[in-house]
Amino acid sequence: MGVTKQGLAAITKTKGNDACHIILRGGKSGPNFDKSSIQQVRQALINAALPPKIIVDCSHGNSNKDHRNQPLVANAIAEQIIAGDHDLFGIMIESNINSGNQKLPPTGPQDLAYGVSITDACIDWNETVQVLHSLSRAVQLRRQNKI
Question: What is the pTM of this model?
Answer without folding.
Answer: 0.85
